[in-house]
Amino acid sequence: MSSNQAPLFSQRFRGYYPVVIDIETAGFNAQTDAVLELAASVLSMDDQGILTIKETHHYHIEPFEGANLEQASLDFTGIDPYNPLRGAVSERDALHDLFKNVRKSMKAAGCHRAILVAHNAAFDQSFFKAATARSGLKRDPFHPFVTFDTTTLSGLALGQTVLAKACKEAGIDFDGNEAHSALYDTERTAELFCHIVNKWQTMGGWSFPSPDEDQANQ
User: Fold this and answer.
1) What are the strands of the beta sheet with 113-118, ordered from one edge?
2) Which residues pair with 84 in a beta bridge?
3) What averages of pLDDT result for each successive group of 10 residues across the chain (218 residues)?
4) Residue numbers annotated as active site
5) Which of 37, 35, 41 has the alpha carbon at shortest distance from 21?
6) Measured on CA atoms in the order 197, 202, 206, 209, is the torsion positive or negative?
7) What is the distance between the alpha carbons of residues 11 and 7, in angstroms, rounded to a whole number?
8) Which of 17, 57, 179, 201 is deepest in the core (most CB within 10 A)?
9) 206 contacts 9 by C-beta, under 8 angstroms
10) Strand, helix or coil at 68?
11) How big is the chain by its Cα radius of gyration, in Å?
12) Which residue blocks in the chain are alpha helix, DSSP H?
């Protein structure tokens, strides 16, 4: 990491650190239906202001006590919640580990708050916040309501709102047979988000500070 990478990242999104999330669930009700899988890609920025995926954290998650499991949702995702080979952990353990890693990357980027990025972000955020509340964890690094929605961004930038079609338009490989895995969908969504942000910069939509400006702001 170069000496000016952290302040550059922090200036790009007004101190927010984007973390790309995808959640696979056992239904559509965030209060009653289980979270079964969670993945999160944290990002890095080079000296030219270009975003890339830094690393992705992936968790298979045990249904919380009393959780509802809709068979139609299980059939759609192909997830067997009680398969011992999943190596599933509790919501609390998954989120504790994720929050720790997000705070570490966020601090290195010079940012003060994480912001959730997702495709149809309202859905993922509702389940993410419900799981956080159940876990009882207090040090949630994510903004309580602000998100970046790649559905909206893709509609604007690419004329597509479906993840697979938006990726195709952006020149990102997308294998429909791998879709609806949190790990796969998160990394494709992260690539899509980076593509849109980076393309906007190359078109002149955002100019990163010159070294003199960067020094003056420190």
Assistant:
1) 51-60, 35-45, 16-25, 113-118, 142-149
2) none
3) 60 95 97 98 93 97 97 94 94 98 95 97 98 94 97 98 97 91 97 97 79 48
4) 180
5) 41
6) positive
7) 6
8) 17
9) no
10) strand
11) 18
12) 5-12, 71-77, 91-108, 121-135, 150-158, 163-170, 182-202, 211-216
- Give the whole-angstrom CA distance, residue 14 versus residue 16: 6
Query: Locate tokens 């949702």: which residue?
Result: 73
Q: Which residues contact 151 (CB under 8 A, 6 or more apart)?
A: 119, 120, 121, 161, 163
Rounded Cα–Cα distance for residues 135 and 95 (Å): 8
**Token output for 13:** 């999104």
Residue 189 tokens read as 């969504």
**Does pTM surpass 0.85?**
yes
CB 35 within 8 A of CB 23: yes
